[in-house]
Structures are given as structure tokens and as C-alpha cells.
Design brief:
By secondary structure, the chain is mainly β. It contains 9 helices and 46 strands. The chain folds into 4 domains: 30 residues; 74 residues, Carboxypeptidase-like, regulatory domain (Immunoglobulin-like), CATH 2.60.40.1120; 281 residues, no CATH class; 312 residues, Porin (Beta Barrel), CATH 2.40.160.
Length: 824
């Protein structure tokens, strides 16, 4: 037999033996194969009333502690080597549901019904509450589990926010009981949303506080060029391990804070075993009688590192007009690091009541936001510093991404209702030019009214103070539609009490760089408060309480001024303004400056060079294609300005210096409240008239508005100086001291002190030149939010003047005031 024949013969024999090998293998491995059979079941848990998904529902299998939980979208999946005969679904606030084998399929939808039964607070003696051991372990491991304590990390995040109408009773009502308008409204609710917003973000973080979030794609239904970016990352803290957890800009004490065990009630609700790990489900809320800004919700704590695997949280004290809820899901990576996998937030705004048949139905707007995090990885400290004061940067290409790009980056596809929303709202946006409307709205929030390529300046339309009375005028300036490089404007106005016209103009050239640089020329023929402290480049909104004391101004100088200025950012957190001005001051009150070099002067000419600095360490900004907006800083903000009089220039009669400082700092202390501090100081040459001295910021009237950084009991123009130091301290306890249902006032204490000196009061005639060398003191009490109108709130307060400069009649030392705060 040749070699080939041998192989053919053996190959045929081998083929014949294959069935025998397969049979033998099947028999030998039958038991092993049986042991590897997996029984799987998956599905979704939803609210039986409205179909919304329920996150983190506890699911127990076959009456054992083994099981799983639904994810943040209500989905669940479970595999077992044993037959699945029974599933039990339990969720705080809902009735427990048990499904037997006959009701189970490979994929099911589970509907849970809400229960009105509230968890009762039980008395648990020390050492008997099993939840406390778990909570203490979680608190002790906070630093290790907080990803922001890592040297550095990066991830991508896909955000989707959907604004919808929520009217449960309307959706459940009998169609025959609804009129035509309500039927159309229900059809609209079922067909589409009001608005859809999507973002895709590339985040990089470096410990301790360097952060950059690049928005590489953004999309808003109805808008081709959105002027705003609605980022979910700004609405809630991205980690649940800090002492203070922020939701919607409000601070709450974290149930995992250092001293939270004394403030919070914890209850172990369930325990689930998955592999080698155990997950403890703990309900939490503030103890009854503990009055602080607390949260309520459910913590899932995993025994692997005692880390939070998921959490739900909402304010314990309900707001009838505004509700907010958050959910966070964490996942452990291959390095054992628990990182946030998905963040949800629901904002519910109760608007009006509508009638569905004979039943009044709450009509609410709900903004449901979901953030899906992917590609989480640790990063080394970069050799090139990619971080700056820009924390959120919307790249120019972000608003121009096509649908193919979005389909590639979406963590979850958009559904039919969302597609319909884009189709309808995009067509409406094109037909009604919604981009133009949003541009107008943005201008209004900045105190302007956009009229095509020109803005109407609202601050130039009307104002009031004790000297001018009511002022009416008109101010116009070009906007970005005219040019982003050049800007010009002018104004004219008239004071009804001082019967004087005012006018001015400006021209600004913006330099094409990232340092906020510009050149600017200003001219004004106007009025200015005598001895006022004004920092070049600092502007206040009309809604800022700091400006309220301006209503009381009753002593002003006529001002005729030309100014040329340059502004730029010289360091990451430092801005500088350089200015050269020539000005004529004419006091509009009975005043004479008696100085041997000038004789009896009543009109004063100044040529002045000034340098103004603003330092705000840690201040972060969001940058869009339309400009930058500050996100604030946790550190003090410092303003410093130095002015030098130049008598060798035309129009300069005085050789002098004038320098002043303003430092503000606010911070929040858990269980105590918010503290705000302000330090003012100034020093000037002694050869200056009243226009260039320092006039203490008084704010007294028979009844006035509280204005931070001013003295409520001090009479207007009572103290002048050429050197001074003033300190203002405020502490707002928030709702910590008192809260009762809808009535939630905020108690605030404040104290202010001034020391000042004037070296040559004899140079000044016609007005009083009083100083506070021995210290001026006042303290007071404010009760904010006695009446809350939603957009703004009102309160009352009182202040008391004491010390050396208290007045002879006791009642004159008392001041009454209103507090006015806008909720913006």
C-alpha cells in the first residue's frame, strides 16, 4: 500500500469513528453540560400609573437574598444556574410585587403601584441599628472612593435633556369627558415633547481642582445657533462623597458627611448578594426635629470597598412649585475604582391647573436629564497644561454636527417622540426665527433689548436717586450682529429734580485673542456721587442688592470726562485695566476747597493715570461662541486700584495718589449656614477736594432697602476721609432656625465697622467733614423670604447704631429696612 493509500484509508476510518467520539463526549459531559445551563430573565420596572422607569428596584430571586437591582433606566437582567421560580420586586414608596413562575417570561415589564404609607420613624437604641455600621464604613472610605481624589481621569459623557408636559390625570381621563382643546393637548403630550437638548462632552480632571469639559457637540431642537448650553453637569455634584451635595445650585448636607449620623435617620431596608459582594439598601432622611437643608432617598452601598453603587436623592423639605430629584449609578472598573456610570436629574415645575372633565389637573413642566458616562480611564499628569480658567468650552464645531455624527456618539438612540420633537420644533424654529428670539432673550438678561443690530440699554432708560430725582433717557449701542470686533454707543438723559441733561458715548475695539483684551474710549457729561469709590471695569447688575443704596444718593458732582482704557487678562485669574483720563469736577452742592496752592476753588481739573486689578483665584468660566460667563469661585475676590494724578499734563491741577481695596468672600458651613465677608480700605493724598476723598457708603432713610457693603444707620455724607478701613460681616442661617410648611423665612445677622481719618478738615468749607477715628459700629437682623413671589422675595430687618458715634436720641440709632432679593 502506498503512502497516499494509507492516509486515505485511515481518513475514511476516522470519518466513520466521528459519531462514536461525539456520542462518548456527550455521555461523559452530560452532567457538566446540565450544570452550565443558565436560566435568564430580563425586563423593565416602571410606575404603574405613568409608565416612568423606576431605578434601583430591589429584585430577589426564589425567596433568597440573591438577586439584583434595576439600573437607572429601570432595566434589569439576571442569570442563574437554578430555575427561576419566583421574583420579588420591592421599592420604597411602592407596594411589593411577587411574580410566580407562571407569570415569568424571558422578558417582562413589571409595573409597581405607589403606596401612600410613609416610613415610620422608629426608636433605635445605640448599638441596635444595623444601618449605622454600614454608613460608618462608607464614611470612613469616602476619600478612597471619591474619584476627584485620584491624580487624574478622563471620560466622555452624552447628555440628553427632554422638556415635557406632565399631566397624569389628563392622560388617564376618559376621552369622552374631555373637550376639544384638552383632547388636542393629550394628543400633543403623547406625540412629542416640548424641547430636546443633547450634548457630548470630553472631560479631563486633574487633582485637586483642575477641570476642563469640552463640549464637542451640542444640539437644541428649534435652534440652528443656540446661544446657551444647558449642561446637566452644572445641576448636580458628580460625586456623592463631599460633605455638601449640590442640586440645582442649592447646597444640602450629604447623608455621608462627616457628622451626618447625628443628623440623619437611616434604615436598612434590604440586602442583596451578588457573587462575592453584598449590597445594602439603606433609606435615609433627616431626623424629625432636625432643621437643616437635608436630603431623603435611598443609598445602595457595596461591601466591596464600602462604596456607593447607586443613590437617589431629593430635598427633604418639599417646594410646591418646584421639585428636583437626582439618581446616580456607579460602576467598578478593572482597577477597582467606582466611577459614576450614569447621572439622572428630574426638574418638575408646577405651573397651572387645568380641568380634565370635572377634575382639576396639575399642569406641570418636567425636564428629565440623563448623563451617560463612557470611556472612563485614569490619566497621568499631562506634560502640557491643558487646564485654564475656562472650565466649560463649547468648541466652534459643536453646533454644526450632522445627524451621522450624532448617531455615532449617542449612548442611547433617540426614540420616536424625540424624533417627532426635532421635526416639529425645528420646522417651527425656521418659520418663526427662534434663534432671533433667543438672542433677544440673552440680551435682556444682560440688561439690553436687542433691536436688530442695535441694543437698547435698559440702565440708561430710567433711574432714581435723591439728587437727580427721576431720570429718563435713551441709550443705544451696537451688538454682535453689527460687528464682534467693533462696538459703539451713545446715551442721553435728563434728571427731573436737578433739571440737568446728561450724555455720553463710547467706542470699543475688541482684540482677536483669548485674553479678553480691548481698547476703549469713553466720554461722559454726567453726574457722579461725591467721594465715590469706583473700580475701572467693575459693573453691577440692577438686580444686585449692592446697588440698592444708590437710591439714597443726594450729593453729586457734575462730571465732564474723557477716558482712554485698555483691558486684558495677564494671568489665569488676574484681569487688569489701565486708563488715562482728563476730567473736570464741578460740585453740585455748596462747597469750597481752601488750599494755599489753589486759593478758593470750586471747579477741579484732574489728569489721572489708573491701574485696576481683579484677582479671583479658582474662578471658572463657560465659553460659548457668544462669549464667556463666570461660574464663580470658592475663594476670595480681590479688587485693587491705584490712581496717580498728573499735574504736568493739560487739565491736571493736582499731583496726588489715591488707592483703594475691596475683598469679598462667601462660604457655606454645613449645619451653620452661609457667611459673607467684605473688607474695604483706602488711602489718598491729603491735598484733595471732596470729589476725590472717600465718602463712607451710607444707606440711611426713614425706610430703606438693605444693601450689603453699606451702613444702614449712617446718614448720607456723614463721614469723609482720606484713609479708612471698613469691615462687613453677614451670616445667613437659611432655614436652619425656623421652617414651617410653606413659610420658610431665612434669618440673617450682620455687623459693620468703620475706622477713618481726615488729616486736613480745615481745607473744606460748606459741608461737614466728620471722621470715625474711634470706630463706627452697627449690627442688625434680617428676616428674608417673609413673602415669596417666585421671581423675587421680600423680608424686613432692623439695625442698631452703637459706640462713640451713637446719636443722643435712642430712636435715631434704629433703622428699619426691607430686604429684596431676586431669584435669578
Amino acid at each position: 500500500m502506498n503512502f497516499l493509500g494509507f492516509h486515505i484509508h485511515n481518513f475514511k476510518s476516522f470519518i466513520k469513528l466521528i459519531p462514536l467520539f461525539l456520542m462518548a463526549g456527550f455521555i461523559l459531559n452530560l452532567s457538566k453540560v446540565h450544570a452550565q445551563v443558565l436560566y435568564t430573565i430580563s425586563g423593565k420596572v416602571v410606575d404603574a400609573r405613568n409608565g416612568s422607569p423606576l431605578a434601583f428596584v430591589n429584585i430577589q430571586v426564589n425567596d433568597k437574598m440573591i438577586g439584583t437591582v434595576s439600573d437607572i433606566d429601570g432595566n434589569f437582567h439576571f442569570s442563574s444556574s437554578q430555575p427561576i421560580d419566583k421574583l420579588q420586586f420591592s421599592y420604597i414608596g411602592y407596594e411589593t410585587l411577587v411574580l410566580e413562575r407562571s407569570s415569568l417570561k424571558q422578558k417582562i415589564t413589571v409595573k409597581l403601584r405607589k403606596t401612600e404609607i410613609e416610613l415610620k420613624e422608629v426608636t433605635i437604641y445605640p448599638g441596635q441599628n444595623p444601618a449605622l455600621r454600614i454608613i460608618r464604613n462608607a464614611i470612613n472610605n469616602r476619600k478612597r472612593n471619591n474619584i476627584e481624589n485620584l491624580p487624574g481621569f478622563s471620560y466622555n459623557a452624552y447628555e440628553k435633556t427632554v422638556f415635557s408636559i406632565k399631566a397624569d390625570s389628563l392622560l388617564l381621563a376618559d376621552t369622552n369627558s374631555l373637550d376639544t382643546n384638552l383632547r388636542r393637548l393629550r394628543e400633543f403630550i403623547n406625540r412629542q415633547h416640548l424641547l430636546v437638548i443633547e450634548n457630548y462632552i470630553d472631560r479631563q480632571f486633574q487633582s485637586p481642582n483642575k477641570n476642563i469639559e469640552k463640549v464637542v457637540a451640542t444640539k437644541v431642537s428649534g435652534l440652528k445657533d443656540p446661544i446657551f448650553v444647558f449642561l446637566l453637569s452644572q445641576l448636580q455634584s458628580s460625586t456623592f462623597y463631599e460633605d455638601v451635595f449640590s442640586i440645582g445650585g442649592q447646597n444640602f448636607i450629604n447623608p455621608l458627611a462627616e457628622n451626618s449620623i447625628e443628623k440623619y435617620f437611616y434604615q436598612l431596608e434590604d440586602t442583596i448578594i451578588s457573587g462575592h459582594d453584598t449590597t445594602y439598601i439603606i433609606f435615609y432622611r433627616p431626623w424629625k426635629g432636625k432643621n437643616f437643608d437635608g436630603l431623603k432617598g435611598v443609598l445602595h452601598i457595596n461591601s466591596n470597598g464600602w462604596a456607593v453603587s447607586s443613590v437617589t436623592a431629593e430635598p427633604y423639605q418639599k417646594d410646591e412649585n418646584f421639585e428636583i430629584k437626582v439618581q446616580q449609578l456607579y460602576e467598578q472598573d478593572s482597577n477597582g475604582i467606582w466611577f459614576p456610570r450614569q447621572l439622572n436629574i428630574d426638574l418638575i415645575m408646577n405651573i397651572v391647573q387645568i380641568n380634565a372633565g370635572n377634575q382639576p389637573t396639575p399642569f406641570r413642566i418636567i425636564a428629565s436629564g440623563k448623563t451617560y458616562i463612557e470611556n472612563f480611564k485614569l490619566i497621568d499628569i499631562p506634560t502640557k497644561d491643558i487646564f485654564s480658567h475656562i472650565e466649560i468650552d463649547v468648541i466652534p464645531e459643536a453646533i454644526h454636527r450632522d445627524e451621522d455624527y450624532w448617531q455615532r456618539i449617542r449612548a442611547v438612540p433617540i426614540d420616536e417622540r424625540e424624533k417627532e420633537t426635532y421635526r416639529v420644533i425645528d420646522s417651527l424654529g425656521a418659520a418663526h426665527n427662534l434663534d432671533r428670539f433667543t438672542y433677544t432673550l440673552d440680551a435682556f438678561m444682560k440688561g439690553k433689548i436687542a433691536i436688530k443690530k442695535v441694543n437698547l440699554d435698559l440702565e440708561k432708560l430710567m433711574r432714581y436717586n435723591g439728587h437727580e430725582g427721576f431720570y429718563a433717557g435713551l441709550g443705544l449701542e451696537t451688538n454682535d450682529l453689527f460687528s464682534r470686533r467693533w462696538q459703539t454707543g451713545a446715551y442721553w438723559g435728563y434728571g427731573l429734580k436737578d433739571k440737568t441733561a446728561k450724555w455720553g458715548a463710547f467706542l470699543q475695539l475688541n482684540l482677536p485673542n483669548t485674553h479678553d483684551s480691548y481698547f476703549r474710549y469713553d466720554y461722559q457729561f454726567d453726574k457722579q456721587e461725591s467721594g465715590v469709590i469706583e473700580f475701572t471695569g467693575r459693573n453691577f447688575s440692577g438686580f444686585d442688592p449692592y446697588t440698592y443704596r444708590n437710591f439714597q444718593i443726594n450729593r453729586m458732582d457734575a462730571l465732564n470726562e474723557h477716558q482712554l482704557s485698555f483691558s486684558t487678562r495677564i494671568f489665569e485669574y488676574t484681569n487688569v485695566w489701565l486708563a488715562l483720563s482728563i476730567a473736570e469736577f464741578n460740585p453740585a452742592y455748596d462747597y469750597r476747597f481752601i488750599y494755599h496752592e489753589f486759593g478758593n476753588n470750586e471747579i477741579f481739573n484732574f489728569s489721572e493715570l489708573s491701574a485696576s486689578f481683579r484677582w479671583a483665584y479658582g474662578e471658572k468660566f463657560i465659553r460659548t461662541t457668544k462669549g464667556k460667563v463666570s461660574l464663580g469661585t470658592k475663594f476670595p475676590v480681590v479688587w485693587f486700584q491705584f490712581n496717580k494724578g498728573l499735574d504736568f499734563l493739560p487739565g491736571g491741577d493736582f499731583d496726588y495718589f489715591r488707592t483703594f481695596l475691596d475683598v469679598t468672600y462667601s462660604f457655606y458651613t454645613p449645619f451653620i449656614g452661609k457667611t459673607s465677608l467684605r473688607l474695604n480700605a483706602g488711602m489718598a493724598s491729603s491735598n484733595l477736594p471732596s470729589s476725590k476723598l472717600f465718602n463712607a457708603r451710607a444707606n440711611h432713610a426713614d425706610f430703606t432697602l438693605f444693601s450689603p457693603g453699606s451702613f444702614t444707620t449712617m446718614r448720607m455724607n456723614e463721614f469723609y476721609s482720606d484713609r479708612f478701613i471698613a469691615f462687613f460681616a453677614q451670616h445667613n442661617f437659611g432655614h436652619l432656625l425656623f421652617r414651617s410648611g410653606k413659610f420658610q423665612p431665612e434669618l440673617e445677622l450682620f455687623s459693620s465697622v468703620l475706622f477713618s481719618n481726615l488729616r486736613h478738615p480745615e481745607y473744606h468749607e460748606g459741608i461737614s467733614m466728620k471722621t470715625a477715628e474711634e470706630g463706627y459700629f452697627e449690627s442688625g437682623l434680617l428676616i428674608h423670604r417673609l413673602i415669596d413671589f417666585g421671581f423675587y422675595n421680600l423680608g424686613i430687618g432692623t439695625a442698631w447704631r452703637y459706640g462713640t458715634y451713637s446719636l443722643p436720641r435712642l430712636s435715631d440709632n434704629l433703622a428699619l429696612m426691607l430686604s429684596l432679593n431676586f431669584n435669578i
